[in-house]
Sequence to fold (326 residues):
Amino acid sequence: MILVTGGAGYIGSHCVKRLQDAGYETVTFDNLSEGHRAAVRGTFVEGDLASLDDIRGVFAKHPIEGVLHFAAHCYVGESVENPEKYFRNNVANTLNLLQATREAGVGKFIFSSTAATYGVPESVPITETHPQAPINPYGQSKLMVEQMLGAYAHAYGLRYVIFRYFNAAGADPDGEIGEDHDPETHLIPLAIAAAMDRRPPLKVFGTDYDTPDGTCVRDYIHVFDLADAHIRGLEYLAKGGESARFNLGNETGHSIRQVLERLAVIAGREVPADDAPRRPGDPGTLVASSQRAREVLGWEPRFGDLDSILRTAWDWFEAHPEGYAG
Ligand code: UFG
Fold:
């Protein structure tokens, strides 16, 4: 059985679904502070990693063979305003999970990290050996957990896979689950909501970056492909693979204007958008090299083109304009 913390959240719930499709049994552990009960398939335990007893109880009750750890706060801006919240939840509470994992003698661990651990890139595409110099507490909190995993591996023999996601986007191609954040801050859901007249025009944060059209360039990766990588990561560890870190991106950058242009075609209407000042802390360009995941895990994105990402996201929001509440 695989323990999935944060399995009611956006990326976690897509992973739970894919794990089950691949024949794994799962137990999802989530405090529902940001996740959705309706997003979870299979066994669900409501609990909080702040409580060592809560998480110990899951290991006591279920025959856990591996852990996928998604539970975390994930808003860069909020982390700057309230770093304590991020260090408490993302770092201190992860230590409880690591302790319970060690006590239970479970030796396989997969961790959701982020491109935000690299900070402002010195060069793109970004490889896993690029220096990690995060510029906000969110990225710092994720890097701290990466370092904790290194120490656990050294001292206790834990084996881990760290995935550094670039810009997760899209929704379940079957349409069962999708993205529902509150507040929503991500480009694609906000642009879709603007196109549907459910939100004000999108603000394009910064038009004077050193990029072809002046807007930020990001590497959007489909949540289905992220989930697929996690399954490969588990198989890799099950076969005895050594601890490893992998970037997960499509290795292709799209500017905000390009995203809005493609979305307009899919939506069949313009996306209302206004130019706005830069958002603090945004690097101009973030594009992954995912060569290592391709070579070591045999990972190959199936929804690698921007249109598939936008189409599945659009379909989800069209069917669920209020998210899981609708
Ligand atoms: N953007 C806008 N208008 C908006 C929202 C976003 O122009 O209303 C822009 C941003 O400035 C950025 C791009 O769209 O240039 C993508 O922004 P997102 O907020 O969708 O994503 P980020 O690149 O900021 O963040 C993502 C993840 C983070 C992770 C980060 C790594 O959501 O968890 O990548 O840098 F930390």
Summary: The chain has a mean pLDDT of 97. Residues 83-103 form the longest helix (21 residues). The first strand starts at residue 2 and ends at 5.
